[in-house]
TrEMBL record:
<dbReference type="InterPro" id="IPR032091">
    <property type="entry name" value="Malt_amylase-like_C"/>
</dbReference>
<protein>
    <submittedName>
        <fullName>Alpha-glucosidase</fullName>
    </submittedName>
</protein>
<comment type="similarity">
    <text>Belongs to the glycosyl hydrolase 13 family.</text>
</comment>
<dbReference type="Pfam" id="PF16657">
    <property type="entry name" value="Malt_amylase_C"/>
</dbReference>
<dbReference type="Pfam" id="PF00128">
    <property type="entry name" value="Alpha-amylase"/>
</dbReference>
<dbReference type="GO" id="GO:0009313">
    <property type="term" value="P:oligosaccharide catabolic process"/>
</dbReference>
<dbReference type="InterPro" id="IPR017853">
    <property type="entry name" value="GH"/>
</dbReference>
<dbReference type="InterPro" id="IPR013780">
    <property type="entry name" value="Glyco_hydro_b"/>
</dbReference>
<dbReference type="GO" id="GO:0004556">
    <property type="term" value="F:alpha-amylase activity"/>
</dbReference>
<keyword id="KW-0378">Hydrolase</keyword>
<dbReference type="InterPro" id="IPR006047">
    <property type="entry name" value="GH13_cat_dom"/>
</dbReference>
<keyword id="KW-0326">Glycosidase</keyword>
<feature type="domain" description="Glycosyl hydrolase family 13 catalytic">
    <location>
        <begin position="14"/>
        <end position="404"/>
    </location>
</feature>
<dbReference type="InterPro" id="IPR045857">
    <property type="entry name" value="O16G_dom_2"/>
</dbReference>
Amino acid sequence: MANPLWWKGAVIYQIYPRSFQDTNGDGIGDIRGIISRLDYIKSLGVDAVWVSPFFKSPMKDFGYDISDYRDIDPIFGNIDDFDELIAEAHQRNIKIIIDQVLSHTSDHHPWFLASRESRTNEHSDWYVWADPKEDGTPPNNWLSIFGGPAWQWEPRREQYYLHNFLTEQPDLNFHNPEVRQAVLDNVEFWLKKGVDGFRLDAINFCFHDAQLRDNPAKPKHKRQGRGFSEDNPYAFQYHYYNNTQPENLEFMREIRTLLNQYPGTVSLGEISSEDSLATMAEYTSGGDKLHMGYSFELLTDDYSSRYIRHTVETLEANMREGWPCWAFSNHDVERVASRWATNGEVNHEQVKMLTALLGSLRGSVCMYQGEELALGEAEVPYESLQDPYGITFWPNFKGRDGCRTPMPWQDSEHGGFTEVAPWLPVSPAHRQQNVAKQQKDTDSTLNAFREFMAWRRAHPALIAGDIRFIETSEPVLAFYREHDGETLLCCFNLAAEPASMPLPQAIQHDFNDWIIHSNGTVQNDTLHLPAFGCYFAKL
Ligand code: TEU
Ligand code: CA
């Protein structure tokens, strides 16, 4: 029987479908493109893919604004393509996790089109509507993440509606039980199709503060990280949606109850609150809420062993039944190869080390397409910009297009992604790092990725083991992973210069012959690590 706990310690490969592979020559990736690359995905040695939204959408936020939750957008294909994707993936023993954007819909969704018409119709209470203040201004001071007030005026109702993101992404009113039921019915539609789980977009945004209280101000030094520009006022508020709303936890239970009817399916919640470590623990506690929480904490600019250790240890201390899920990159943040570059340039040895580090943390991990190729953030000129978030805050914040440019499969004009001008240009630097070239190079990051993932699979301590950190000084990070009598020592040099640490315990053997990027040497109880070196050993 298939293992229902397959997701514990799984490696999940995130696909941004617009930019993965085009098969019908319109310059936009599609589901058939994913199918055509399943053998490549299999070759990476990952357990699952998470596919970003491909549902019917006006594409104001590139699919995170959904107008039909049960259909595929024609840009990406049709429902038969999706069925085939599931079948072909499952045949290769790859699980399929899909995105579910529950907190808001598109403003083109029939629910919203009805709701906006009047204050008295079947859907009038399905979104968050509020009267203006006496002077006609919005009901409170809430701001949208993407800029400006979180309230948009609707003349038909003479009321404002709430949108935490774009104005084209009105927030559903989760206080209304009919809304929750309708949302869960949509989720079940995909469970019946045979998906293996969900990445739940912005799941802590579902419930708003029913009293509509003003958000309190936040001191400047406490602003949220992750590329938020200093002049985005959103960063200077505490937000009521992520103050423990008991209703939100109750909704997590409703989701879990549904998933329990489909054994082996998993929920991975994207929780981006101010105190996301605590919120993650809460949302995954008790064994009756979400299975996994997606951590934002390593998507930040902070790159030091102290920070990484502190983050992982804090989460470990908070988390009980829940299981963490770590990522260094995704479709919303600057690619890690650039973000953590130590001298401003992508370094392939660093990326190999980071792959080994991410794959050694306790928890599941998400690797974002192109991370296996050491792709850095692409330069997207203002004229080519697509992301509305970036267009608003340019040039202080350049938006998310730099991590969303197409996959470079080969060294040709559009990198083998498409035959025509793609929706975002393929980066010339990425073309040099293409898949075909890296396949042939035994020393490439792509082959190091594969080799590491294969080795990881053979070591249950790395998948299921406990984690225990060792006292080190910068730039070395070191910990044990322990499972079933096996103890592995994992050491990483985060810097571009050699480093060393005292070896804490005698070792049985190292794995230097086994994995190319385990390359430390021991001399008189001291471990010497080359620049961006790693060391794996058995105690
Ligand atoms: O992102 C949720 C979220 O919290 C974002 O604010 C994220 O932190 C920000 O984009 C970082 O720059 C999810 C999706 O991942 C994102 O792509 C969507 O735009 C957003 O929800 C709205 O659906
Ligand atoms: Ca296409």
